[in-house]
């Protein structure tokens, strides 16, 4: 099991782009926030806006940990972002060929979160080759997208996984509690499921998602 029955699930809100949502995430007790730098994503944040969010969190106690998300970025883009922003984690996608082992070893010096897309039942053995990181994200597979598709996958596919992972893919305020009780993950990760339109976070959905996740034992 990833989580003891008396522990609340960790919550990651991914793809935030403004200070209002950043404040809500902190006030409601989100554990991680993702700043998305994926070139093709509707959640891509500009460096100047990201810097405001980072500065806000670093000035406040009990702020979420900051995750920088990359998928099919150029080396120069990743260098610029990583050197410009104080952060806790770097998130990358397992099948992203632009993230080479040398980049992970030399550029990704902070803690890492690897996102692994699930399209069939997986076992602990299947994940042995996935670079050991502090956390895994197990997400639904969608060709050409690194995540944030809003599609769920069959949760039974990951029932036996023992590593700490964040469950992602199609989670919403209305199904997150059920997902936590069913899968018992270390935590949950949401992007499109708390949006009013692609890339635009809905404050009430963010609040309800965090509260529903935190109250699901």
UniProtKB/TrEMBL annotation:
Occurrences of domain N-(5'phosphoribosyl) anthranilate isomerase (PRAI) (ranges): 11-211
Record's protein name: N-(5'-phosphoribosyl)anthranilate isomerase
Catalysed transformations (reactions): N-(5-phospho-beta-D-ribosyl)anthranilate = 1-(2-carboxyphenylamino)-1-deoxy-D-ribulose 5-phosphate
Broadest EC class assigned to this enzyme: isomerase
Pathway the protein acts in: Amino-acid biosynthesis; L-tryptophan biosynthesis; L-tryptophan from chorismate: step 3/5
Protein's organism: Leptospira yasudae
Keywords: Amino-acid biosynthesis, Aromatic amino acid biosynthesis, Isomerase, Tryptophan biosynthesis
Listed Pfam families: PRAI
Family designation: Belongs to the TrpF family.
SUPFAM superfamilies noted in UniProt: Ribulose-phoshate binding barrel
Gene Ontology molecular functions: isomerase activity
